[in-house]
Amino acid sequence: MVVGGRPLEGDAFRSRLVWLVLFRTVAASLSLVITLARLLLQPTQELSGADTLSLGVIVSAYVSTLVVGLRLRRGRGGLLDAWVQVIGDVVIATGLVYLSGGADSPLTFLYSLSVIGAAVVLDRRGALWAAAASVLCFATLVMGARFLGSVPGGLMPPSRVMFVLGSNALALVLIAVLAGYLSRQLSVAGGALSAREADLQRLGRLQQQILSSMPSGLVTCDAGHRITYVNPAGCLILQVDATQVVGTDVEALLPGVLGLAPRSPRSELVVGKGLKRRILGLSVTPLDGAPGSLLMVFQDLTQLRRMEDDLKRADRLASLGALSAQLAHELRNPLASMRGSAQLLAQDAQDAMAQKLTNILIREADRLARLVEDFLRFARPPTPVLQQVALASLLTETVDMLRVDPLARDVRVEMATPVVMAVSVDPDQLRQVLINLVRNAFQAAGARGHVKVALTRAENEARIRIWDSGGSITEEMMGHLFEPFFTTRDGGTGLGLSTAHSIIRAHGGFIRVRSNPEEGTEFVVGLPL
């Protein structure tokens, strides 16, 4: 749509038309007030025909305004409605001026309102056309009063007629020019403001898209250290809901972060406990323009640090394994010779004491031989003989077998194997791992404890979860848990977990553990599918 030589958007034009409807409503209300005031100030008498017509014209203005308003509400308002409104304003103003005294009417200001209304909706060109129509109608009304004598108030002298016509025409033209200029300036300013608002909205959407797609977590806080924003990646890393943490103290979400303020290029921060424990690589930067406010950007380094620990542990275990294999090999031959000699001595022993001592030598030699075999199994686990195994069945059979173990007495055992999957494993070696982990769980849970064994699936791997309610593994013990000869159990060799770790690594899998007194201990065994 084009108004005043310039393109005007449909929504913007309808907005102007709405303002014109409101303007007409105000003008009609003012006219009604003035008419009623005039009638009330007159001596009490019945309404004359002119008074009745004046009220009818005002009512018709209200009705036409209502019709246009309804069309606008339905989205049908257009340029034709605007011209009808403007022409109707001029006609209504002429009727009211005629009925209220002609050239001496107090309602001649209605022509000015018509011109201003035209400027609002049709710009300067529409205002000039409305002014011309108003001057023509007013001139016709005044000249009709002179030549026909049909306007109340009687005849006017020629000089008076020229003065009234000239002054009103000049006033209407000036009002049209001024209102048109202001309307044009308002349109230009409104267009520029709309463009800036659209740019700001685009920038806001772009900023929100950038913040939402960032893989790094981002948290901002104000000078009072209250959280003002957390991006989606930050919520995912910290496992929180943004609506719940915004407005809370930043130390509750990131304990120790204020100790890094006001500026920290790169630091590591440990947050959460147990299953929610995270290692964050974090930087803190003050926000410009907001004294005391901070911006914290962080990444989740938990998996990276876990992989580093696994690599260090694997390297350390490889070195220990090589040394252990060599040492075990050197011990086997002397042990065999010692046992053989003890057997010969036992055969030639003449008294009970000698027999008893040789039996002790044989028993201890056998115990050392078993220990050497366990050592060799850890150092050089046999190559797995892989075959397709129904993992749920193997897990159920192993746990059912262990239910009669003395360690399982008074321990509540739960099984959850809803997932049916077949994996390529060595069933004997995997059963050895499961026996070791489940018996450890029984021992850690203790009497009236609770143990859960579950089978789940995650992407391309099967996961066996063994949980106990003990939660007795400390942070200091975590780093040595899979090392040989490390044990917290009386009489233990410290080779069970290290052997299990070696077996699972030989299968291309992993063993991870999480533990705290509140949430218990969970070993997770991952096996590739």
TrEMBL record:
Q: What is its EC number?
A: 2.7.13.3
In Gene Ontology terms, what is one molecular function of this protein?
A: ATP binding
Does Transmembrane helix count among this protein's keywords? yes
**Which Pfam families does this UniProt record tie to the protein?**
6TM_PilS (PF25323), HATPase_c (PF02518), HisKA (PF00512), PAS_8 (PF13188)
Q: Which reaction does it catalyse?
A: ATP + protein L-histidine = ADP + protein N-phospho-L-histidine
Q: Which Gene3D superfamilies match?
A: 1.10.287.130, Histidine kinase-like ATPase, C-terminal domain, PAS domain
Q: Which InterPro entries match?
A: HATPase_C_sf, HATPase_dom, His_kinase_dom, HisK_dim/P_dom, HisK_dim/P_sf, PAS, PAS-like_dom_sf, Sig_transdc_His_kin-like_C
Identify the CDD domains for this entry: HATPase, HisKA
UniProt keyword annotations, A-Z: ATP-binding, Kinase, Membrane, Nucleotide-binding, Phosphoprotein, Transferase, Transmembrane, Transmembrane helix, Two-component regulatory system
Q: Where is the Histidine kinase domain?
A: 326-529
According to the record, the segments passing through the membrane are: 21-41, 53-72, 79-99, 129-149, 161-182
Q: What is this protein called?
A: histidine kinase
UniProt source species: Myxococcus virescens
